[in-house]
Each structure stands twice: as C-alpha cells, then as structure tokens.
Specification:
313 residues; binds beta-D-ribofuranose; alpha/beta; binds calcium ion
Length: 313
C-alpha cells in the first residue's frame, strides 16, 4: 500500500518530538507533507523552532515546517512549562535549527494542501491544541469533506483531566477549536488520556531508547527522562505517559489500539469543567457517533515499534 499522506499539527513538546521522529522513521507507511506548529505547551516562537530542531535531529532538513496560530480562538494561551521545561524540549542539549521556517502561514498550508490533493487522501494528525485545524475548517469549510481522517491526541473520559480536574491539556487550551473539530463531520480518531496513561515510559523502556546508541536514541532517552519527573511524582506511577506518539503509531500499526465509536461533545461554557470531553462511552444518549475514542493499547507492542523504528534514524 502507498504511504499515507499526512500533515502533523503540533506544539513540541518532548512527546510531540517522539511522535514526529516515529513518522520520519516510517516512510513506508507515512508520507509527511509538512508540519504546522501551534501555540500550546510553549508559545509559538518555541514550538515552530522545536519542530525544526526535531527534523534536524532526524537529518531531515527537507521537511517543510510552518508556523500557525499563536493563540487560542477566544481565550488567553495556557502553556505547560511545568511539564516540558522552559524551552518545551528540555532534557537533551540540541543545536538551534538552521533550516528555515516556511513563509506561508500553517493554516494556509493546510487549506492549500487539502484543496490541491484528491479527496480522502490527506490525514491530519493533531498533537496539540486544535486552533490551526479549527481555523482552517472555519475559513475553508469545503475542505472538511476532503480530509481522510483527523487523528488527534486529546481529551479523556475515565482519566478525566490533567490540566484541570476535568480537562486534558490540548482540549482545555482551545475548547472552542476542539468543538469546531468535533462537530466538523470529519472522521475522528481520538487518543485520550484513557489510552495514553497506559503507554508509560518505564525505566526499562527509556533504557531501550538509550541502548539504540545513536544521537536520536540518546535524545529521546533524555527527553523522556526529563518530562517523566513531573508525571511520576504526580501520579506515583512507574513512568510518564508518552501521549502524542500514540497518534503516529496508530497510522503504522492500528491493531495496537482498541476503542469505540461514540459521541463526544466539548464543554465550552462552564469555567468549572471547561474543555471537558463529554464522551458517551456507555451509549447513554442517542447523540450521533462522531469519534473513534480509543481506550486501550498493547503497550509492549507500542514501545517495541517505537524502539525499532527510532533505531532506523
Ligand atoms: C498533551 O498535552 C501536552 O502537554 C502533550 O504534548 C500532549 O499533547 C497531553 O495532555
Ligand atoms: Ca503535544
């Protein structure tokens, strides 16, 4: 089968970085058309720079990286330096990028690509707040029917929240954008905390990254070492969840994941539960099913895939 054409929309972030590296390591399955950065874990000036740092780490200066929206649609930006460090990519010491940022705005790149490519051939992979995707869908509503699928990391049902008691970070940062995406009618695959909290980077899994013994393996081990500190303390778990690579792993090996087609709505009015993903996991309502909401992962298979693929870079 021909590799799937994708655009990665991202706010790197160490786990975003690993997700991008996995895509770059998998050219048989993934044809990366470009990366669009969005404000999220850290401000846009850092996320677009970090995206280029990651491409250069993989020896892929040819990847087109675009800067997108620098703030959520209607709310002030909330960032997560407490998890990812002040650069967003704290851990390894990596050189500043020398590859240039594209002049075109990330949202325009998404719109132009979808208008140009045949319908149903481009998949959008969202690893951060959904501002760029929602802006593209609002500005050019006709692209909705051309998108093959949106695969996104965001939300939670059983695990409820990580940035507030009831909301996951990516959805909380821009709930209005999330609402637009979830109501777009585009087929959605959602990787919520319910699944990413089962993809834990244990010390043995970090050691496996380090044992690759390449600059990429070392950098990934240093990244996971860094952001683990916060989550291990918070959850008292053996390791931190590696959220965003679930999205790119799904493209390569979907049988690692299990979920249900359900209705998911986004809370955008209550400050108390802002950004909550109201997921009808038990089929209590007759609201239309709009998402494949993933709940389970073969974590061993997932980390085997990651380690094997990252070793190719
Ligand atoms: C999500 O928020 C960010 O901190 C991570 O990169 C991930 O996309 C997890 O809630
Ligand atoms: Ca992210």
């Amino acid at each position: 089968m021909a590799p799937r054409k994708i655009i990665i929309d991202t706010d790197p972030g160490q786990d975003d970085a690993v997700a991008i590296l996995l895509a770059l390591a998998s050219p048989d399955e993934i044809d990366l058309l470009g990366i669009t950065a969005v404000a999220g874990n850290v401000p846009l000036a850092l996320t677009q720079k970090n995206a280029r740092i990651v491409c250069e780490l993989a020896g892929r200066r040819d990847v087109a990286v675009f800067a997108g929206c620098d703030r959520p649609l209607n709310r002030p930006l909330v960032t997560a330096e407490h998890v990812h460090g002040k650069t967003g990519l704290d851990g390894p010491t990596l050189p500043d990028p020398t590859m240039t940022l594209q002049d075109q705005h990330g949202v325009d790149f998404i719109i132009d690509t979808l208008r140009r490519e045949p319908a149903g051939t481009v998949t959008l992979c969202a690893l951060g707040p959904l501002t760029n995707l929602a802006t593209a869908l609002t500005r050019a509503p006709e692209i909705a029917e051309k998108i093959a699928e949106i695969i996104l990391m965001g939300g939670a049902y059983f695990e409820v929240g990580n940035i507030t008691p009831t909301a996951e970070f990516n959805i909380y940062v821009d709930p209005d954008a999330a609402k637009i995406v979830f109501q777009s009618g585009v087929p959605l695959v959602v990787m919520p905390l319910d699944v990413t909290h089962k993809a834990l980077v244990t010390p043995a899994r970090t050691a496996a990254f380090r044992d690759i013994a390449t600059p990429v393996g070392d950098a990934v081990a240093e990244m996971t070492d860094f952001f683990e500190r916060f989550d291990k303390e918070k959850y008292g778990s053996e390791g931190a969840p590696l959220h965003d690579p679930c999205v790119t792993a799904y493209l390569i090996q979907p049988d690692l994941f299990r979920g249900r087609h359900i209705n998911v709505e986004i809370e955008t009015t209550s400050e108390l539960t802002m950004g909550m993903t109201v997921a009808d996991w038990w089929g209590i309502t007759d609201r239309p099913k709009n998402a494949l909401f993933i709940g389970d992962i073969d974590a061993g298979g997932f980390f085997d895939l990651l380690t094997t693929r990252l070793a190719r870079l």
